[in-house]
Amino acid sequence: MLTVVGMGPSGLHLMTPAARDAVDRAEALVGGKRHLQQFPTFRGETFALGANVSALLDWIASRQDKHVVILASGDPLFYGIGTRMVAHFGIARVRIIPGISAVQYLCAQAGIDMNEMWLTSSHGRSVNFDELVRHNKVAMVTDGLCGPKDIAAQLVARGKGQRWMVIGENLAMENERIHWLPVSEVSADYEMNAVVILDER
Ligand SMILES: C[S@@+](CC[C@H](N)C(=O)[O-])C[C@H]1O[C@@H](n2cnc3c(N)ncnc32)[C@H](O)[C@@H]1O
């Protein structure tokens, strides 16, 4: 059996009981270093996940008789590993346990409703900024190559510097910080973050 569990943004307290129960029953655990470290007493096999997804698919295929659990950051089907697993194995063979995405958590902390929100990601992909600026409320996960200041530069280039950017840095961690800034003033570097872009504050 293959289960992909959403870990939420950080910390075991933000995982659902169903996700924690699946990990308790796991015979093999897959995840990034940050996620595997959260289960120091796990005694089964582990697979450290990085860019090696093809190797992971082979590893899972050779363990079909085992209960393999993949730890996914946030929600597995929001720009996460769950999408690749469903595409490869089919939903009949993969159980997805949802989690709180970084975007959901940021919205909760900042008091921003998610109604009519356009969701996207710059994490390892290019963003269609012409499409993005057509939406009044946008949320995205990011990466080091295209983070808040790069996104802001794209918006300023399209005459949208007066919009607001809410940057959620290290969400649910000890060093969490949430910044509200006019897009034209976003010029710093931020650690791991998700952002919301609003027409007005
Ligand atoms: C591959 S995407 C995964 C998104 C994830 N599936 C979700 O639902 O949040 C990874 C990106 O999610 C965002 N992210 C995940 N955890 C975060 C956290 N604790 N604080 C801020 N951003 C986070 C960052 O933009 C990070 O680069």
Task: Please explain how this structure is put together.
It is a single chain. This protein is α/β, with parallel strands linked by helices. It has 2 domains: 2-97, Tetrapyrrole methylase, N-terminal domain (Cobalt-precorrin-4 Transmethylase, domain 1, 3-Layer(aba) Sandwich); 102-198, Tetrapyrrole methylase, C-terminal domain (Methyltransferase, Cobalt-precorrin-4 Transmethylase, Domain 2, 2-Layer Sandwich), CATH 3.30.950.10. The protein is built from 7 helices and 10 strands. The chain has a 5-stranded parallel sheet with strand order 3-2-4-1-5, with helices on both faces. The protein has a 5-stranded mixed sheet with strand order 6-7-10-8-9, covered by helices on one side. The chain starts with a strand and ends with a strand. S-adenosylmethionine binds next to strand 10.
Task: Set down the secondary structure blueprint.
Elements: E1 2-6, H1 17-24, E2 28-31, H2 33-36, E3 45-48, H3 53-61, E4 68-72, H4 81-89, E5 94-97, H5 102-110, E6 118-121, H6 129-132, E7 137-141, H7 148-157, E8 164-169, E9 177-182, E10 193-198
Parallel strand pairs: 1-4, 1-5, 2-3, 2-4, 6-7
Antiparallel strand pairs: 7-10, 8-9, 8-10
S-adenosylmethionine is lined by residues 9-10, 73-75, 78-80, 101-102, 123, 141-143, 168, 170-172, 192-194.
GO biological process, one term: cobalamin biosynthetic process
Pathway: Cofactor biosynthesis; adenosylcobalamin biosynthesis
GO molecular function: protein methyltransferase activity
